[in-house]
């Protein structure tokens, strides 16, 4: 199976601590890297990981609270000093460009690459990025400021040709692409050779969703139904549910309830309040509702 | 002796690494805290230290390169969430306000304190802050962008009254301030009691200078002559002197030469390039010229 994994850089909320940075993660699909949110210190966490910064071409910003984006100027400045090349695209709402463009213009005058801003509308779900292997949709979330999550949808790879069969039937090169796409082959004697005899099946397309920050909202369920991995914020424990409601965040139980209703395969919880030095109490509350839950932590790599 | 110390938060240059943040330090004079420069992550380093963030009221920015100021929005945002009160003053050149005010307006709408900007002109030496115990002067430095260092000058404290003598001569309360200031006392019988019999001497006024970033420049010597502690940047070793010149930084030997010519009591070197995982080679080169040199490192507290 080709690589599709989530690398947690930071998973705290609001206030970073000496033990926990705020929110940033990197989705790695076949060694192409996509950063989701960029907390203060993200550049340090990225370089401490084994991820190759030269393969990072896209940054997605869920919303414009500092704990999700204060690392942007430092990251981009350092990527410039490290000699990274190739356009870098920041996908975020209109204010992201308004805020960060002047900073980059001032502090990063001689970047060896161009930073482009792709403006997204967080109030609706739309396809905000697509290439041959990946499609990224936005997911409207419910928070104090406009916020969206992101669904990373691997695109089905084509079938793999079975070399011996291609040789045996002397299939012309010009027909190979059609066969990868699923076409059958008809020999010169008129015999039909089913595609299933010529190819091995394409691997299943996997899906990962990042949903932070958000109050409990069943509206997100249609977007995440049956996906392989859901990252859902779990800022508070049940005992602090009133505070969760007030700040439009979720409790661990609420995250688990969403995971259960959406029948996802696995749940990862994160965005823990600094009031919990040990977030295991959040894990326990989530597991009681949705057993296949893992706790985000710095350096965790979650494979799909 | 009352407390006067420098707390190193970060002491690297340009590129932070997993082992070394860039530049930020806190001067602590009698439990009043003054931050000098504010690297990305400074808020985390401050909170990991034993310094009380509630006692931080002034931030001095030497220049506007990212490795010296990217931590400003995160620090101020977190100080707000932690409920700090009282005005916070950022002393920096005019562009500091132009850059950071819009960020604070956007990200820190509900701060429980006011952030004021005190504009300084980095091309001349001037008194930029003064209270009863401290005077801060700027020191023009030589760098690729306008940059200044800072001289922290403790103001002489008044003499301490000797309680038994005050009682013995029945000195009226209204005269005590004059006596603290050095006045003699004349009894009702016309006897002159020398001030030295009524007070213990004021402690000596100490001086600390922060000089980073700067190329080698003997012009700073008059400002730092004979001071107690000089922090001077030492970005490169001698072998990389050409690179130091090109980027308008100093070598460790150059920092030591300045310390020696200015006859300072102690030198601390910092702002090490990330190319030296172990900065002891810089220390060795400095010590060869100025023996009383220490190496800045995260968490170091240097007392005067």
Architecture blueprint of SSEs:
Two copies of one chain form a homodimer.
Chain A: E1 4-11, E2 23-29, E3 32-36, H1 42-48, E4 56-60, H2 66-69, H3 72-81, E5 88-92, H4 94-107, E6 115-119, E7 127-130, E8 134-140, E9 148-154, E10 160-161, H5 163-168, H6 176-180, E11 185-186, E12 192-193, H7 195-198, E13 199-200, E14 207-211, H8 221-224, E15 229-233, H9 241-247, H10 252-261, E16 266-270, H11 280-287, E17 293-295, E18 301-303
Parallel strand pairs in A: 3-4, 4-5, 5-6, 14-15, 15-16, 16-17
Antiparallel strand pairs in A: 1-2, 1-18, 2-3, 7-8, 8-9, 9-14, 10-13, 11-12
Structural class of chain A: alpha/beta
* Greatest interface and its participating residue counts: A-B, 30 and 30 residues
Largest sheet: spatial strand order of chain A: 6-5-4-3-2-1-18
| Count of extended strands of chain A | 18
Proportion of strand residues of chain A: 25-35%
Percentage of helical residues of chain A? 25-40%
Low-confidence stretches of chain A: none
Q: What is the oligomer described by this structure?
A: homodimer
Overall body shape of chain A: globular
DSSP helix count of chain A? Answer: 11
Main sheet characteristics of chain A: 7 strands, mixed
Structural Rg of chain A: 22 Å
SSE succession of chain A: EEEHEHHEHEEEEEHHEEHEEHEHHEHEE
Average pLDDT level of chain A: 95
The first-to-last residue Cα distance of chain A is: 9 Å
């Amino acid at each position: 199976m080709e690589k599709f994994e989530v690398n947690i850089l930071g998973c705290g909320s609001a206030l970073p601590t000496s033990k926990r940075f705020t929110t940033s993660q990197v989705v790695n699909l076949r060694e192409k890297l996509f950063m989701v949110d960029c907390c203060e210190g993200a550049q340090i966490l990225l370089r401490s990981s084994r991820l190759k910064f030269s393969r990072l071409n896209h940054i997605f910003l869920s919303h414009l609270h500092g704990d999700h984006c204060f690392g942007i100027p430092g990251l981009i400045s350092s990527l410039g000093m490290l000699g990274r090349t190739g356009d870098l695209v920041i996908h975020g709402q209109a204010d992201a460009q308004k805020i960060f463009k002047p900073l980059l213009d001032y502090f990063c005058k001689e970047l060896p690459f161009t930073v482009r801003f792709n403006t997204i509308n967080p109030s609706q779900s739309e396809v905000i990025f697509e290439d041959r292997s990946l499609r990224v949709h936005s997911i409207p979330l419910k928070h104090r400021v406009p916020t969206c999550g992101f669904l990373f949808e691997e695109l089905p790879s084509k079938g793999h040709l079975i070399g011996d069969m291609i040789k045996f039937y002397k299939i012309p090169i010009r027909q190979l692409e059609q066969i990868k796409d699923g076409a059958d082959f008809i020999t010169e004697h008129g015999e039909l050779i089913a595609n299933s005899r010529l190819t091995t099946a394409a691997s299943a397309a996997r899906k990962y969703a990042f949903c932070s920050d958000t109050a409990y909202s069943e509206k997100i369920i249609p977007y995440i139904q049956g996906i392989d991995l859901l990252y859902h914020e779990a800022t508070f424990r049940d005992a602090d549910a009133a505070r969760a409601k007030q700040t439009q965040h979720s409790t661990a139980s609420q995250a688990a309830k969403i995971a259960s209703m959406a029948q996802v395969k696995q749940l990862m919880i994160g965005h823990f309040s600094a009031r919990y030095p040990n977030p295991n109490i959040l894990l326990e509350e989530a597991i009681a509702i949705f057993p296949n839950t893992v706790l985000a932590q710095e350096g965790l790599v979650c494979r799909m």
